[in-house]
Write a structure and sequence with these properties.
The protein is an alpha/beta fold. The protein contains six helices and seven strands; from the N terminus they run H-E-E-E-E-E-E-E-H-H-H-H-H. The protein folds into two domains: 98 residues; 106 residues, no CATH class. The radius of gyration is 25 Å and the shape is globular.
């Protein structure tokens, strides 16, 4: 074999190996973008978490002309099943370093269609995801216990009084909508574990608003609580 041909074949083989490696790198992640109204200090290199495990990384954070942020993420292929349209994405503090931020993934159900490669999806606030998770679990099997409810209610503390009243109304609406599908056991859990905590929160608001014009804003909440209690007695 002539030296020039031999060298050419060696280079061709080397390029084939490099190409295969590059393809392997490209195929090792599932990449898409998440749209956020605020990134709270999130930046390139921050982690993506799912159920306490790091499953990916933020590749880029860009501010757009439309006034929103686009966050490019890469999810490791072995965790691609967490990236479906049944998942919700929000920005949270890094459990390893509270001066940093991470993206958390929460699944609202086992079923879901995979997020397409290079798709752009909407992210949410932590509170919105916790609320949706609460409502989903309530409708499925009512397996919300005191610790989980306290975590959910504690998120309300950072909101204005008006927002707290609005979100409590939404929560009660979700309960009322699902009561027709609840078993006797589920209703018992609702009555003994969930409603007392909600009632405590409502009374805290009532005490804070006592003597003000806003105290009347609790009227719709009281009506919804009465309707739920009446339904439980049926």
């Amino acid at each position: 074999m002539q030296p020039r041909v031999h060298t050419f074949l060696k280079l061709a083989l080397l390029w084939a190996i490099i190409s295969a490696s590059l393809i392997g790198c490209t195929d090792s992640t599932h990449d898409f973008e998440i749209r956020f109204s605020d990134v709270h200090g999130l930046h390139k290199g921050n982690s993506v978490y799912f159920e306490g495990a790091v499953i990916g990384e933020v590749q880029k954070v860009a501010y757009t002309d439309s006034g929103v942020f686009l966050v490019s993420v890469s999810i490791q292929n072995e965790f691609a099943s967490a990236a479906t349209d049944a998942a919700r994405f929000f920005i949270d503090s890094d459990p390893e370093n509270n001066t940093q931020k991470v993206i958390r993934v929460v699944q609202l159900g086992k079923e879901g269609n995979p997020i397409e490669e290079d798709a752009v999806i909407d992210g949410q606030t932590k509170y919105a995801v916790l609320y949706e998770q609460f409502a989903y679990q309530l409708g499925q099997n009512l397996t919300i216990f005191e610790a989980g409810i306290n975590e959910f209610l504690s998120e309300l503390q950072g909101f204005s009084t008006d927002e707290q009243i609005e979100e409590l109304e939404k929560q009660l609406d979700a309960i009322m909508a699902d009561m027709g599908r609840m078993t006797r056991e589920m209703k018992h859990t609702l009555e003994t574990e969930i409603l007392p905590l909600l009632r405590q929160k409502i009374e805290e608001l009532r005490k804070r608003l006592e003597g003000t014009a806003q105290e009347e804003d609790l009227g719709p909440i009281d009506q919804k609580m009465d309707a739920i209690n009446q339904e439980l007695r049926v």
